[in-house]
TrEMBL record:
Ranges of residues in domain HTH cro/C1-type: 3-39
Keyword Cytoplasm belongs to the record: no
Species annotation: Kistimonas scapharcae
Protein name from the UniProt record: Substrate-binding domain-containing protein
Keyword annotations of the record: DNA-binding, Repressor, Transcription, Transcription regulation
CDD domains in UniProt: HTH_LacI, PBP1_PurR
Length: 338
């Protein structure tokens, strides 16, 4: 296997000149650079990424923790991160935590040991153990993506969840619905709490409220959306509209409603959140709040890489605006009186 010394010998230059040509760290005359690259091609020389990273104290690698990359929205976000990494000459190491706290801590430690240049945490629940572990990583650039962790010094990229929740509720209120329930994961997920806060704000403007029994927690997947909706349907007085913290829960809720022989949106209107690709193909198509996962991922990776290069702040915050997408699970022209 050829070495950098072999390349220097064939090209008739010093080892440092070969290094400058390959890394672009200093001007080298076109003739000399051509000799070096010709020698590289002739010897089939492949520079050692490990050796280069040790010398430069960088691996050009980002680490990313995600609760479940199988979630379609998270998959879109990861795709955006990977695209941005590719354009910037970075690689991505991805770890799924399965929403398990101990696995989350182990994955985080593993990424640190692999000497990643920066970390992205996507929709990770805020826990005391996580805060404690992150406090030991003060020298590593950190970006919180669509989540928040109290007291942690980090870059932040997130959707405006309060505004998104407000838009979802306002859409229902505009059609005369006043009895609005909410299914999500408010117990440990700050973003879900913000969406509920936006819903409550919109409802309060109309002089009504949301009973505690109409707010049901789940696990942000289809199964828990189904179970949460069943719980609402079993109440003596059920809501006539429901907002889900994400589209997966909304899809589970849709099945529960239809199994009871109820009609969407006539009997119960429904709004999701995220606008994953599947929502346009449900029956009826799901009204939802769009936040581009791919855009969020791209912005997150670009922001973190800029900070790693030392040309960006370590605590900046970028907010992605939400957008209401009207489809078939909310009436289009109804003004019901109560």
């Amino acid at each position: 296997m050829a070495t950098i010394k072999d390349v220097a010998k064939v090209a008739g230059v010093s080892i440092s000149t070969v290094s400058h040509v390959l890394n672009g760290t200093r001007f080298v005359s076109p003739d000399t650079a051509e000799k070096v690259m010709s020698a590289v091609a002739g010897l089939h020389y492949a520079p050692s990424a490990v050796a280069r990273s040790l010398k430069q104290s960088r691996t050009r690698t980002l680490g990313m923790l995600v609760t479940r990359s199988a979630n379609p929205f998270f998959a879109e976000v990861v795709q955006g991160v990977e695209d941005a990494c590719y354009r910037q000459g970075y690689q991505l190491l991805l770890s799924n935590t399965a929403n398990d706290e101990q696995r989350q801590l182990a994955c985080l430690q593993s990424l640190v040991e692999r000497r990643v240049d920066g970390l992205i945490l996507l929709s990770i629940a805020d826990t005391p153990l996580l805060r404690q572990q992150l406090s030991t990583l003060s020298e590593m650039p950190l970006l919180l993506l669509d989540t928040d962790i109290a007291g942690v010094k980090a870059l932040r990229v997130k959707g405006d969840s309060i505004k998104g929740g407000y838009q979802a509720a306002h859409c229902l209120l505009a059609q005369g619905r006043r009895e609005i329930g909410f299914i999500g994961y408010t117990a440990r997920h700050p973003v879900t709490e913000e969406r509920l806060k936006g819903v409550r704000h919109a409802v309060a403007e109309q002089g009504v409220g949301i009973p505690d029994s109409w707010v049901v927690d789940g696990d942000l997947d289809c199964e828990s959306g189904y179970s949460a909706m069943r719980q609402l349907l079993d109440l003596p007085e059920r809501p006539d509209a429901v907002i889900a913290a994400n589209d997966l829960m909304a899809m589970g809720a849709m099945r529960a409603i239809q199994e009871q022989g109820l009609r969407i949106p006539d009997d119960i209107a429904l709004v999701g959140y995220d606008d994953i690709a599947l929502t346009a193909y449900t029956s009826p198509p799901l009204t939802t709040i769009r936040q581009s996962g791919e855009k969020m991922g791209q912005v997150a990776a670009e922001t973190l890489i800029t900070a790693i290069a030392g040309s960006g702040g370590c605590e900046c915050s970028v907010v992605i605006e939400p957008e209401l997408v009207k489809r078939g699970t909310v009436p289009v022209s109804e003004q019901r009186s109560h």
